[in-house]
Amino acid sequence: MIVGILAPFTGADAALGPAYFAACLPAVRAINASGGVRGRMLSCKQFDTRGDPADAVPATRQMIAGNSNLFMVIGCTSDEAASVMPILEQSHIPAFCQTGQSEFDKSSFKYFHRLVPPDAYDSYAMVGIARYLHGYHKIALVFGNDIGSQTFVQPAVTAIEKTGGTVAINQAIALGQPSYRTEVQALINTHPEVILTEALGATDATYLKELQQLNGSLIPVIGSSATIDPVWFQAVSAAIGVDNLVKAYEANDTPTDFAGPGYEEFKTNLLASAGDFDKAPKYVTRASTIHLYDGVIMTALAATSAKSTNPKVFNPEIIKVGNGGSGAQEVHKYADGIAALKNGKAVRFNGAGGATQFNQYNNSQGGYIIAKYDAQGNEVNTGSLSQEQINKIIQLAGA
């Protein structure tokens, strides 16, 4: 059976697809080592959306039509989720999506699952770091002009203003341009204290390099969770220097401890997947990779619990495996979950990314960690924002 990775592998957001491929490989390795899903082995297969709804729709239809043994899908970013999720729903394909679009906050899709917060909450967390942690007042917004990045902007504007800050400048940057000197100078002229950003590919690298050149130094940078990525780190650190990036940059990210038995199994299988994907080890502290890994394991346990590989039968079990229930045995690894199920136990999967708590809309979220990079490009947890702190911003923003 196939786990489809439906995401950009080419185009401006091509850095996203490999992070999700790196989630599938160790999950499949762990599942197959324990006999697969009801005796059926899994494999990972990439389906390129190019980060464009116009390309994502035919890619999704071809994926479904050409793979009768499609087990589930991971990926489906903000670039294409709105266009592909109705197709997946109609075809009864369970999906763990990395979209932050607000339309999925209270959607009616039964086959949609999300382990990451909405982009609006991501925006509130970035503003929370800027306003509450550092006391910055004049805040610049530098986001790519792609769908996924622009979903952050209006919530950020509202949150900045409602918390007493000022938007120094709001720039929608065309991705992949050879230079942004005009835009950089316009930003410098507004004298911001900090920059909030998500501009993927080489865009942030080019922009920040020219900012460093024209300004004589960097301005502090707070990135979205998508900027915690080895491709982003490599591009930006090469452009502005590792030491400068480590000093100037921080971000919010989906909570994970990078510890515990579930994480250690993920890490072991990720490192062992380097023969299939040589860059896989670079994603060892990529939160989105970790949480999608959990999604694959959770779905495989759900199929075992339901005694069926038919998604119509096992899809409702995904929430039960994630949330548990009275008398459920907590498990951290696929093999332990299989053993518990064989012994007649219900299970709650507390995996590499920690425990989930799905609501009635199949969303699970619980605050943010504050992250920086070390000199090797690993994510370092430096603090946290609780869901209560995020809720305070939400209330101020009237969301």
Range of helix content: 40-55%
Major β-sheet strand ordering: 7-6-8-9-10-13-14
Radius of gyration of CA atoms, rounded to a whole number = 21 Å
Task: Give the structural class.
Answer: alpha/beta
End-to-end span in angstroms? 41 Å
H/E topology pattern: EHEHEHEEHEHHEHEHEHHEHHHEHEEEH
Name the average pLDDT: 94
Structure explained in plain terms:
The protein has 399 residues and is of the alpha/beta class. The chain is 44% helix and 18% strand. It has 15 helices and 14 strands. It has helices spanning 16-33, 53-65, 81-90, 119-133, 147-150, 153-162, 181-189, 203-215, 230-240, 242-248, 261-272, 287-306, 311-323, 334-342, 387-397; strands at 2-7, 43-48, 70-75, 95-97, 112-113, 138-144, 166-173, 194-198, 221-223, 249-253, 329-331, 347-349, 368-373, 379-385. Strands 7-6-8-9-10-13-14 form a seven-stranded mixed β-sheet, sandwiched between helices. Strands 2-1-3-4-5 form a five-stranded parallel β-sheet. A two-stranded parallel sheet has the order 11-12. Helix 1 (16-33) runs parallel beside helix 12 and helix 6 packs across helix 15 (387-397). The chain is globular. The chain starts with a strand and ends with a helix. The model has no long low-confidence stretch (mean pLDDT 94).
